[in-house]
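Hi V.,

Quick status before I head out on leave. The structure for the redesign project is tokenized and pasted below; the design run finished overnight.
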């Protein structure tokens, strides 16, 4: 079974204070409709590239899609794995994840950091590891999964909306 942990995008979705509000309008053009969207690239479930905090670091188009093992709400060896958390973390915890070999860190929070701190962002992005924020993890049981995350290729951008799926086992991917 695939589990979609991506938040739906809608007018009024909460955004980081000062960020561009999400706005989708529908345009009718004869027998077709088309949507126009205005938003920050850090709206909804999104991936921060290292360039989000470090100019000259990897941009979102330089980050490949992820299909990796993941630890969800579990302690364990994160070497070569994504780690998904229920909430923000301290800079010390973030640095421990980097030092332990995590390849991706995600959170259900709108930010990986506590209370306006930037320490977790600095540790993780400074380690060259992308961050996924605003995951929809409420119905996900703790465990080991396969994570698939697909950021859009915005050239030179510091982030992107991302579709994130979890699979309990490899055979779930090829349904």
């Amino acid at each position: 079974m695939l589990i979609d942990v991506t938040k739906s995008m809608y007018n009024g979705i909460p955004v980081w204070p000062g960020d561009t509000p999400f706005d989708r309008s529908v345009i009718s053009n004869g027998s077709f409709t088309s949507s126009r969207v205005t938003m920050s690239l850090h709206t909804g479930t999104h991936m921060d590239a290292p360039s989000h905090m470090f100019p000259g670091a990897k941009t979102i188009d330089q980050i490949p899609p992820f299909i990796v093992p993941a630890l969800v709400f579990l302690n364990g060896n994160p070497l070569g794995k994504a780690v998904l958390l229920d909430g923000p973390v301290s800079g010390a915890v973030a640095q421990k994840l980097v030092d332990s070999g995590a390849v991706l860190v995600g959170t259900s929070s709108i930010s990986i950091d506590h209370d306006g701190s930037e320490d977790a962002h600095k540790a993780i992005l400074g380690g060259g590891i992308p961050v996924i924020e605003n995951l929809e993890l409420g119905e996900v049981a703790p465990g080991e999964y396969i994570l698939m995350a697909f950021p859009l290729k915005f050239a030179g951008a510091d982030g992107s909306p991302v579709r994130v799926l979890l699979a309990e086992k490899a055979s779930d991917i090829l349904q």
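Above is the designed sequence. The chain has one domain: 2-172.

G. will cover questions while I'm gone.

Best,
W.
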